[in-house]
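Hi Y.,

Following your request, here is the sequence exactly as I used it, all 404 residues.
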Amino acid sequence: MVIVRREGVLLEPTENEFENQAVLNPTVIQQGDTLHLFYRAVKEGNYSSIGYCKLEGPLNIVERKNSPILFPEYDYEIHGTEDPRIVFLEGIYYMFYTAYDGRNALIAYATSKDLKTWEKHGIISAQMKYDEAGDFFRLSKLKEKYHFFVSYYKDVVSEDVLLWEKDSFILPKKYNNKFALFHRVLPDIQIVCFDDFKDLTTDFWKDHLKTLGDHVVIEPKFGYESRNIGAGAPLIETERGWLMLYHSVEDSNKGKVYHASVALLDKQNPFKVIGRLKEPLFSPTEDYEKVGDVNNVVFPTGTAIFGERLYIYYGAADKRIAVVSVNLHKLIHELLGSDLEVGIGFLAGQIFNLTIKEEKSVTQLMNLMDQKEYLILMAIGWLTREDKVLCRIDSDELIVRSIR
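Below is the corresponding structure, written out as tokens. Let me know if you'd prefer a different format.
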């Protein structure tokens, strides 16, 4: 079990007009021991811009700007520039943010070479109404939950609302020489690949949505993810894979609960999930996470690594910014172990069925199942502990037969 240490609240709203209601959902760029933290700042009336502070070490604030570094300038973002995520790739800092006009929430991005001067490049997500998107969902033969959100946004927001997109960023490395953009069409997390941002035209998105089911990387799986999920902090490259923090929304009769979740993606193929926690990494338990502008929310969006500890920066109850930390190596071990446990159980069932009628050697099982020897042996060990098989040695080969 991974032990999560709560480091407490890092930032609260101030009397500055641009952040006098809330601060939340930060992204973090780490340069040695220095952290550049960009966060959503909300002024009264729910108008958002992006604030900045600098830390030395994981928790020591040494600078905080008294004005936003990015703010609404155009009609498509007139109500807010929200929830930034920054990724450094090939000499450029890419900031992805939610552009909100009071009705539509779309993905926009800006770039910088120094984290100080930012150039906006406009909307990059699909700009189409939910009715049209719903037609593409049917072509893609997506599950019914997609159509639930079509009806939900038309009823709750407006009949002509555009397809909501949030929680977006690119992989910190090119994938097959292409940008890989994580995005979220509810209720899943998807990836779309492209050569250049200018490729993200209306026709491009139509083609993508027609086959959206082929681009899903993670979908809700456990009870605490019953409503939807969304990408959190930009991915962290580790020796074992890409570490991905994401948020999970649980439906309940008392209201929605936002949890922090973790998955591990394959380094060579980010579409492949190789580990995933069965329970939330952490959930709203503290008063500052349970009471705020939106109750019961932990929303992980930024990370930093100091020594063996991974620090996670998150929005707490949509009101303030807080921090937790975990042992990074133990977290990865837990992720790989949770997935391996399920896999070994499945292999054990296959071996049991294959050896009911006649005994088989480990070599035969490896060939029949196309699995590595150590996995076959682990599954046999599990079956032996459960008294499900008999084993014997013949000519230095392990032979197995099921016990009926």
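The longest strand covers residues 22-31.

Thanks again,
Q.
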